[in-house]
Specification:
The protein is an alpha+beta fold and 107 residues long. 22% of the residues lie in helices and 20% in strands. Strand 2 and strand 3 form a beta hairpin. It starts with 6 loop residues before the first strand and ends with a helix.
């Protein structure tokens, strides 16, 4: 019997007021040299996801913790992959346009 784990994908769009917001950085001088995507990625890796979007990070059931496993970069967004364990995502159910559009073209 296969165990089902919770997985979550979040797309953060670039060029929005959210993405250009200043996030509390541990090294403020470093932020001047980073692009918008890099600043947002850095904030996510530094654990600020819960602070930035507490309503999205609430877990169903409340007893399982999701970890940020991967950040993928798109042309106009970054994709955050969260889960209980690092597991391959199902491209048919993904919100990543690069994943599900390939399946649509092949169909």
């Amino acid at each position: 019997m296969k165990t089902n784990y919770i997985q979550q994908e979040i797309l953060l769009m670039m060029g929005t007021t959210f993405s250009v917001r200043e996030y509390s950085e541990r090294d403020p001088g470093k932020q001047n040299n980073l692009s918008e995507k890099e600043r947002l990625e850095e904030a996510c890796w530094n654990g600020l996801l819960q602070e930035m979007m507490p309503e999205i990070c609430k877990q169903p059931g409340g007893n399982k913790k999701l970890f940020l496993w991967q950040i993928k970069e798109g042309n106009s967004f970054i994709e955050l992959e969260l889960g209980e364990v690092p597991e391959e995502k199902d491209n048919q159910l993904s919100i990543d346009p690069y994943s599900f559009m390939q399946l649509q073209i092949l169909s």
